[in-house]
Amino acid sequence: MAKPKFGLALGGGGARGFAHIGVLRRLEQMGIRPDIITGASMGALVAAVYIKEITVDATYNELNKMVESEAFKNLGLHLLNVKGRVGESFWHQVASAIQDRIVINLAQSKLGLVREEKIREALEVVIQENVWSNPNAALGIVATDLYNGEDVYFTEGSLLNAVMASIAIPGFLPPVIVGGRTLVDGGVSQQVPIRMAREMGADFVLAVDVGQDIAPLTDMDNAMAIMSQSENIRSCHYRDMLNREADVLLKPEMPGVHWSAYNQREMFVNLGEQAFDEHVVTFNRSWYQKRHPLMGRIKDLFY
């Protein structure tokens, strides 16, 4: 009987995606190397760097180098976190409101708030060649066709273009044209690319979801807030439905942390490790049963 293929599906969530490093570290410590790694959005970037670097420490160092680079700082992600304004001075709140109005006006006239060449320059810090596999694993990246909503899978070709397409957050980053298709963030169609891992041949899938859950809002006093919350509810329900297709699902707890908080990346790594530790018994049992189905059933009779 052939050894079952281990799949690891890494979801999108901006800076929260550094939790994937914590999960990869725990797997590495257990001597487990995934056969297939799929990624959406930030998960695609982490997966791409891991496939190239092979070790977790080298992967973290590369991603850290990118975040510390001038090219990344020039993206201005630190300006996007509009949470936590309660308690700020009156004039700071006024300035923030004006900033929001500028962003809304820009969104009406541009495909994205950040130019494509800026994000390309930042990604080139860690992606210089097309590495889609190593002796241990194969890489898959998902993006979404903006016109028909189809999943678009990448397993070869330009790695830089594939990652750019997968992280193209609608409204923030412009769509990416690849092969005549207009592509946006892979998380739009597969927040956690479990299905892609299955289609690439994974028999067992460990999924890591670093997206935000539905957050209760106290100020539902304008149309933008109502529309945003409604879309968040729809998205979370769809994501939860797809997540049921994983053999084991990890959801690191990080309530209220904005996706642009890259300055908290070490905390996210720790949260990824904690999430794995909390589910390690379930993981070990499930992975054992996949590799030894008969013995797994016998063990379940006695435990």
Polypeptide structure, described:
This protein has 303 residues and is α/β, with parallel strands linked by helices. The chain has twelve helices and eight strands. Strands 1, 2, 3, 4, 5, 6, 7 and 8 form an eight-stranded mixed β-sheet that branches. Helix 1 links the parallel strand 1 and strand 2. The two termini are 26 Å apart. About 6% of the residues have low confidence.
Q: Could you report the average pLDDT, rounded to the nearest whole number?
A: 85
Number of helices: 12
Q: What would you call the shape?
A: globular
Q: Give a quick account of the main beta sheet: strands, pairing sense, barrel closure.
A: 8 strands, mixed
By DSSP, the count of extended strands is: 8
Taken as a percent bin, the fraction of beta residues is: 5-15%
Q: How far from one another are the termini?
A: 26 Å
Radius of gyration: 20 Å
- Succession of helices and strands: EHEHHHHHEEHEEHEHEHHH
Give the helix/strand class: alpha/beta
Portion of residues within helices:
40-55%
Summarize, please.
The chain has 303 residues and is of the alpha/beta class. It is built from twelve helices and eight strands.
Give me the secondary-structure topology.
Blueprint: E1 6-10, H1 19-29, E2 36-40, H2 42-53, H3 56-68, H4 70-73, H5 90-107, H6 116-123, E3 138-145, E4 151-154, H7 159-166, E5 176-178, E6 181-184, H8 194-199, E7 204-208, H9 223-243, E8 248-250, H10 265-278, H11 280-291, H12 293-302
Parallel strand pairs: 1-2, 1-7, 2-3, 7-8
Antiparallel strand pairs: 3-4, 3-6, 5-6
